[in-house]
Fold NTPase protein.
Amino acid sequence: MVITKTDRPADKDLLGIEKYVNGLARFIEKCDTPLTIAVQGDWGSGKTSIMKQVNSALGKDIKTIFFNTWQYSQFNMSEELGLSFIIEFIEKLEQRGNSANRKKRWNFLSWDLLSKGIKYIDLPVINGEKISEDISSYFEYLSNRNKTIKEFKKEFNDIINNTRGKHDRIVIFIDDLDRLVPERAIELLEILKLFFDCERCVFVLAIDYDVVVRGVKSKYGEDFDRDKGRAFFDKIIQVPFTVPTASYNINSYIKDSLKELGFDGTGSEADSASIEVNLIKSSIGTNPRSINRLINSTSLLFEVDGMDSKDNREKQLILAIVCWQLEFEQIYNRFLSAYEVGSEAGEYEPTFDKLINLLENNFKMEKDEDNSLLSNDLMRFKRFYQYLKEVLNIEKNNKMTEEELGDLIRSIKLSNIVSTGNADISESCPNLDMQYVIRKLYNSLRGEDIISLDNPESFGKEPLDIRKGSLGKDILNKSAFRSVRLTRGSGYSLVFSNDASDEDRLEGYLAGTSGGKIVKEFTSSQGINEKISAKKSFSSDICLDAQKLRDDEGIYRAFEEEVIRIILDYRYQLFETTR
């Protein structure tokens, strides 16, 4: 079953905040008028849903009107936002005696006041006190205009008083103000204050305080500091109401959504910290819109991969990867860049061990790399990674293994289709020449035929106990390296190690690419943070072509001898002197 969460505002309370919704509704019913309330919150936090639920909770004797500013900000209509608002407001009031002539006169008056007034004058504002005075002076100056703002407000009050039925008050909900250019949002707030500050009216606005401050600065100059911006906000907004995200019953919302997706291990009702909940909260957090996007992406992947038949752990891993993609995009892209399967640009396929170290060491940068882009997210990712390891059944203090990393990468390859602009990690067809040469070299370095070269269909599928072992005795007694490992996946690379840990670890890398070339340098690093790194170049480019190495035994023997010579350069004495 396909499960999707639309981005439509919720008419019903799904987050356990009924007392806040009902409280705000009762306040609106009882407050003195005129009054303006600001519903504040980040995008996707539920401002529109709260306004719709408050609307449903209001008594029948209250007239309500919804106005969405977003639609008027499109198609170059934002400069006519004030006029559009007035016209739609009057139409929705359903006033008595609404003749065509009366409507035409109102439309003309609105246009006269707004397009000839506010649009063309630069109003000096001090703490929001002088707006009305300056606009009044301006219109009185226009001798050919026989309507004043006072007359406008009087007619507007007459329309409100003549509204069909005996409504106690009119509540006007204005949504998406924080999606407007901040300067336009300020202009609409000024219109509300000047023209609609009438008895029996309550305005409920979806807008954030910071949008108001930015808009005031944009319109009236940088010298209009934050204190003056706060004074302006307080003048327009009498009651701020912040979306109560901290009181959202987000655990219940997530669990209900996951249950729809077919998870069978989301915990009991008393278990508020199930692994799926922890994955989500430690990554994308509690924003309902972000959670809905996560559920939609995961649902799509389940359909693509036929997840109905998969176990709960496989589903959890897909969920975890989508959490990673959505919240830690730069870290996710860095991991994919490190993976670099089949690069044609001469980059070698990194070892699985290097990828594991990236994860285990919280993506610690090389000494010359710029860490600024990732620094803000790394600590949060570290917490998320612990829950990811839990999905992979890795004990808290244990390091991820190659097999577990393989499971992770398989899930990444599937889930990458729902990422936004992330790197592609699809693999090209394996290069059989490269696979053959690397395995032939691996056998020589081990001192015995560990891998059959007559069975190419098995290349890239070798288990770990075949892919890793001690170097042959002739090399072992003369080098700092103790073991060699064939990398997983296509198996184009060899990793040499002294089998030590942390600061005493020494590693070397010989790498090939899907393009059939050996990387020109043998790369080595020392210590868990790679405090010492070096490259030893091969003497001849002709030795680096996999097809020639496979076809010409003489060329291959020269290549093998050079590899052994480089390995022997890493003697114990050299290792000790470079520490």
In short: The CA atoms of residues 502 and 528 lie 5 Å apart.
